[in-house]
Write a structure and sequence with these properties.
five-stranded antiparallel beta sheet
């Protein structure tokens, strides 16, 4: 009798470089002013990049962890609702257990299959994933601190959020969003419609069916989440600044905005349906990353608030 045992293995290496920012270069022309240009492949506005610039990297791995692709997706598009939330940073309640300023909350990643270009008026993914990306994944946040404090060069300090989304079937991933949370409603979905419908509304309020957890100086409630009218005409959304906990809860917003255009919106009316959403801070649409069951994509989001703007 004869027998044999064989073993084999392989070791491969691949250099994955850290996400690279795409600086904006300016040229001063006497008598004319300044012009600016950048080689950024992303979607952020050119001149906006002088003040807030971001990068998104995607690392696609198969079920065994092997790297299939590394993409520099360039800049994303910080949204109107994200900037609105940031402008209200001074007024958000500061619960002792969890502050709710937007950069702290905007740390959950989701993906989808929409293909239209991102727009600042976006409040949600165009078409959420069906196989994993529709569940928001909490990122690991960090400060990437430079060795020097600028010394005349902008973009030296960096905020970063890294999360890995796992997929359960074949899908062409074409969009990504960075979101806040759903407030006291909790969960990791992209919406929550348990408090529906509206029973009344005004220019700065909406009354919803059922009790909500009230927002206070120590409890988030639904503060810093978004409420969207999903029926009726002139579909609109508002950023919830605060809410009470009455039998039919009242949410307070600064204003209502049209979902389609961001123009002045329409207050909700009785029986109209709604969803509550996490604030989408940044949105990116890109050429498809084709995933299979067991694959994952590690998204690394970097934000550089440039000094000197």
């Amino acid at each position: 009798m004869q027998g044999s045992v064989g073993m084999g293995g392989s070791l491969g290496t691949r250099v994955v470089r850290a996400p690279r920012r795409r600086p904006v270069r300016t040229l001063r022309i006497p008598g004319l002013g300044r012009i600016a240009f950048t080689r950024d492949p992303g979607e952020a506005g050119l001149f906006a990049s002088e003040y807030f610039s971001s990068t998104l990297q995607a690392i696609h791995r198969d079920g065994d962890g092997k790297i299939l692709d590394v993409r520099d997706l360039g800049s994303g598009l910080v949204t109107d609702v994200g900037v609105l939330s940031l402008a209200n940073d001074f007024a958000w309640p500061a619960p002792s257990a969890a502050a709710i300023n937007i950069l702290r909350l905007a740390n959950t990643h989701g993906s989808g299959i929409g293909t239209n270009a991102a727009a600042v008026t976006d409040i949600k993914l165009q078409t959420p994933s069906s196989f994993g990306g529709q569940t928001r994944v909490t990122g690991v946040q960090s400060l990437v601190q430079a060795a020097t404090a600028g010394t005349g060069t902008t973009g030296t300090q960096t905020y970063r959020s890294v999360a890995t989304i796992a997929y359960t079937n074949t899908e062409a991933v074409t969009e990504w969003g960075l979101f806040g949370n759903l407030g006291a409603l909790g969960g990791t979905g992209l919406t929550d419609a348990t408090k529906s419908p509206f029973t009344a509304g005004s220019a700065t309020t909406g009354t919803v069916t059922g009790a909500l957890t009230a927002s206070t100086t120590t409890v988030q409630g639904q503060a810093n989440t978004l409420i969207e009218r999903t029926s009726g005409t002139n579909l609109s959304w508002g950023l919830i600044l605060s809410n009470d906990a009455a039998g039919n809860s009242v949410v307070t917003v600064g204003a209502w905005y049209l979902v389609a255009t961001g123009a002045a919106g329409q207050a909700p009316a009785n029986t109209e349906t709604l969803v509550i959403r996490p604030v989408m801070w940044d949105h990116r649409v890109f050429t498809a990353i084709n995933v299979n069951n067991g694959d994952s994509i590690q998204f690394t989001y970097t934000l550089i608030p440039n000094q000197g703007g």
